Structures are given as C-alpha cells and as structure tokens.
Amino acid sequence: MEIQFQSRWFEKCIRDYLGIADRKITTEDVSVIKYLYVSTTDGYFLGFGRGDLPENFEFSDAGDEWFCRCLSDTGKYRTVEEFIDIREWEDSKELQIKSELLDEEREDKDASDMQDFESSVKIYEPEENDFDGLVRNEMTYDYGILYPEDFVHLKNLEVVRLMSCETEIHSLAFLESLSKIRVLEVGQVSLHTLEGLDKMIGLEKLCIWAN
Fold it and tell me: pLDDT by residue (tens digit) across 112-166?
C-alpha cells in the first residue's frame, strides 16, 4: 500500500535511507525500519535503524537520564497512573516516572554494548531548502517541518527515541498505531494532549526526563 507523508523532509529522509528515488513509498518498504530517533530542540535531527536490535538499550550519548530516569517492564502495571505522575499546566502536560519507582530501578541495571548498533544508525539534518515555504509559529516556535502523524506509517518500530523535542512534537497519539514498540524515550517534549499514554503499558524500557 502506498504511503502519503505530511512532512516532505521526513519523506526525503526516508527515501534516502531506503534508497527509493522516483516511485511511491509503500508500507512494505518502511517495514524494515525498527528504530526512530527524533530531536528538534537544538536543530532538527532524524535517525533510522533496521535489522536485529540490541536486547537492552543504554545509549552512550544520553547522559544520566538512562541511569536514573528509566523504568523496566511497565507491563506489570494496570494503569499509567500507577507509574506516571501527570501535571497539567496552562498550555502543556508534564510527565514524570514516579520517583519511588526510579529508586527501585537504580538497584538493577543491565547495561549492554550499544556500539555496533549506534554506529549503524543513519542521522539526517535538514538543508536550508527543506524550510522553503515554512513559517515559524511565534507561539510554539514550530515550523511544521515534522508531523508526528507520519510516524504511524512505520508499523514495525520497536524503539522510539524523542531525545529533545520541545518543538514540533506535541502529542504521543502516534504510539497507538505502533503495536511492536518495546523501548520509548521521552525527553523535553511539550505535550498538548495525553493521547497515546496507554501505550506506555507493556514496554520493556521507558525513559522520561526533563519533561
């Protein structure tokens, strides 16, 4: 089935990653992508990974958050509220893993070698012409260069890493379409909605920091 992306930059990166130039992209094409990295705060970055993913994720460039802001096996909880604190501000929602659970998590860390996987991930940055026709929203600072709705087309994603996304990514609703996700990082994301939070139940690893 053919895929229509809302973000032309996202489509451009997908085309390059998959080596598709002059034809429509299909769901079969993107089925090989199992890892998605997104960062928008200090410049825009996209990263894709495929193949067999490491069993345990401890990113080398993540800093302390992957040692003290993670929770394993969220499938042992019945509701999100059992392990997530939700604070609602005037224009955003703030998520935090309950601190008492993080204390328990620190006691049992199983680090794994990520070097081979990290070196295989291809990272993209936009060029100046990727912003042609886009106007920054003076309230949110979004350009509209990315749409999280495009992520739903990557049905085989197992790992989603929103490293630092204060702009462009304001909803986790796309998680509802990702049945195979097992590792999620949410870092510096300004949420406008609580859609998709139920998909945090059943993860092998959840990391939420600076939110």
Answer: 567 788 888 999 999 999 999 999 998 888 999 999 999 999 999 999 999 899 9
Contact criterion met (CB below 8 Å) for 48 and 187: no
What are the two backbone dihedrals, phi and then psi, of residue 146, each rounded to the nearest 5 degrees? -130, 145
How is residue 144 written in tokens? Answer: 């509209």
Enter the tokens of residue 157: 């994603």
Distance between CA atoms of residues 26 and 6, nearest Å: 15
Spell out the alpha helix ranges (H) of 62-160.
65-68, 99-106, 115-120
CA-CA distances (angstroms) from residue 140 to 35, 45, 91, 164? 27, 18, 10, 15
Amino acid at 88: E
Sign of CA dihedral 109, 110, 111, 117: negative
Q: Are 98 and 84 in contact (CB under 8 A)?
A: yes
Count each helix (H run) and each strand (E run) in the chain, helices first: 5, 9
**Token representation of residue 196:** 């998709």
Measured from the Cβ of residue 50, the count of other Cβ atoms closer than 10 Å reads 17
Distance from chain centroid for Cα 125: 16
Distance CA 61, CA 41 (A): 16
How many angstroms separate the CA atoms of 62 and 205, rounded? 14
